[in-house]
Amino acid sequence: MLFGCLAHAVTVESCVISDRFWVQAISEIQSKSPQEDVIRKAGPSEIDDRDGLKIHREKVHSNKMPLMMMLLRRRLHYLPIFTAIFIISAFFLSYAISVYHGHVEADFPYISYTAVQAPERCVFAQLVNLGAFLLAANIYIRYLQMSEVIDLLNGQRRVKCMNRLSLILGCLSAFGLTMVANFQTVEMRAVHYTGAGLAFLLGMIYCWLQTSLSVRYCRWSLVAVAQLINSIFLSACLLIFVISKTTFKIKEAQGVGTKWDSLRGVYLTSTISEWLTAASIVTFVLTFYRDFSRIELKSPSVKINDRDIVLQDYRFGALSSSGSAVPDVRQNGHAGIV
Fold it and tell me: Where are the domains of the chain?
């Protein structure tokens, strides 16, 4: 009985201490501003001027940043390399699986025909969807980087519109790549060809827009020359692909031959040019390597608007499960016991 009374007394005393703690904590939070709280934690040695608070916040924020975000922030130039290798590897992996199962011939089928049957179409769709996301990330970061350059050099409005247009066309090209991956050419031919048109045609226009921006601001630097060569090669491959595939389909429909006999040369020309077109669009992001090495990516952050409500909600969820008394924060700032 005595031990029971002592245990009850300790529990009541703990509740009272807990209540006093929350009342004091809430009053301190309401009395001080977030800036004063950061300054108090930082110390006078780190807050010498108005910019010191910003530097301290960035330092604390970077210490809490996940490893992947740290790599993207400080090693952003690796993203184009990883994107190009990932997408091209996805193409060749689905090709290898389809050849292994005997679903396609080994000598350069169309990319789409390497992802018609299972299991290669599942692998192709999954990997190409991820690759399209990475490609869109490169396009968006490039847009942000060029926006900073244009603003820094007081660029004209027409140039800013060109940069925005390249962002839209680039994202549509990446979206077309997902359509190619998810809608097989045998079952959903119209949707598949629409996605291929978005990926190839808009991708080519995007490359030329970025090339024109690089030539405008970098003149004939190494990056501008590399982009120009890539764009010319891409345009030539796309033109050869369209002409050769159209010729092959027309002659095959007329009964002139098949891809195994008299039309073999036209067929291989169309398939090889398709692979080179896709590779040229993907490898264009490699020209972003140098520029991405000179920029940093800020990680996303969240700002709590009403700290009192959030404190009350999360404190209630944390303490109510333990059975402790929970102070109630009213709108007028006073605390009570729930």
Answer: 1-25+306-338, 77-292
